[in-house]
Amino acid sequence: MLPSNERLKTSREFSTTYNLKRSVANPLLILYVGRKKKDPSISTKVGFVVGKKVHKRANKRNRAKRLMREAYRNIRLTDKFLLKDYEYLIFLARIPILEADYNQVYDAVKGCFNKAYKKLS
Fold first, then answer.
1. If we measure between CA atoms, which residue out of 81, 4, 78 comes closest to residue 45?
2. What's the CATH code of the domain at 15?
3. pLDDT for the residue numbered 29
4. pLDDT 10s digits, 67-76
């Protein structure tokens, strides 16, 4: 579980990130990137979204969120985290994530980070 200060919580944070319309995608997920930080000491806040269109059962949606959350946590801790200069990040799952294993989700998250870094730099 991510610490409380690193999670997106309010609908205002989600809507401001969505409204910027800066996103990258791959077959498993979409990454929305918020604005740049004004203060570098503030931690990046992250949200993980799996809608009911992906699957109607909550246990399937929760598994997808757990996979994305763990992949993000491992990338943030082990690799050079490319998007640490941005305030908000939102991961939105797509339907094929239900059949994916952890390694595929990890590669998808890492690929989205690389795409977003190239697109925004």
1. 4
2. 3.30.230.10
3. 96
4. 999 999 999 8
Tokens linked to 38: 């004004």
Residue 32, number of CB atoms within 10 A of its CB = 23
d(CA 96, CA 27): 7
CA-to-CA separations, 27 to 11, 76, 80, 99, in angstroms, rounded:
26, 22, 24, 12
Tokens representing 46? Answer: 């992250």
Q: At 54, give phi and psi (nearest 5°).
A: -70, -50
Q: Is the pTM of this model over 0.90?
A: yes
Confidence of residue 79 (pLDDT cuts 50, 70, 90): low
The rounded distance, in Å, linking the Cα atoms of 34 and 18 is 8
- For the chain, the distance separating the N- and C-terminal CA atoms, rounded to the nearest angstrom, is 30
Full domain range(s) for residue 70 = 4-114
Distances (CA, A) of 114 to 18, 33, 96, 100: 20, 12, 21, 20
Q: Where are the alpha helices (DSSP H) in 5-101?
A: 11-20, 58-78
Give the number of domains in the chain: 1
61: left (phi over 0), alpha (psi -120 to 50) or beta: alpha
